[in-house]
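Review form for a predicted model. The reviewer records the input and the model, then writes brief findings.
Reviewer: anonymous (R2)
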Amino acid sequence: MRVIGGEFRSRKLTAPPGLDTRPTPDRLRESLFSILQPGIEGAVFIDAYAGSGAVGIEALSRGAKQAVFIERSRPAVEALRRNLAALKIAHRAEVVTGSVLQALVHRTGDYVFLDPPYQLDEEYQGVLSLLAQRPPSIVIAQHSVRFDPGARHGMLERTRLLKQGDNALSFFRLQSG
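Model under review:
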């Protein structure tokens, strides 16, 4: 696994051992940041269910001011902290160990990226409903192409759906009415 673009392009990242985390494929990360790139500069990026932190680190590499990483798994948090230290960007990151839902109650960002483990499909509803109360600029949910997290959550409405292989990205924005 590596950083795709920006300041840390081609730098290798370590992943936690085991199969508990599912890294976002390089091609999907590249597509994601091609879409987000114009607005990433200076933004606060929240990487929920962060795993190794590859998505949030990609945001930092492309100019995000700060990244907040939320992860419950201790081995994943350890790998994430190693990646931040190796790139010397820990000062631009906040690592939160624990529940995504509880962590998001107290945090806001410009972009929120959600990628819960596929066996936790019910997480999408709770997190998207919470984010709809204080919507960021964009919420991006990575999910299986066989799962639909819903097109609307309160004032958050899906504005784009990108499918690549077995993965999909749903983009949500604040909609009026």
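Findings: Residues 19 and 117 are 10 Å apart (CA to CA).
Further findings: The beta strands are 44-48, 66-71, 93-97, 111-114, 138-144, 152-153, 156-164, 167-174.
Recommendation: see findings above.
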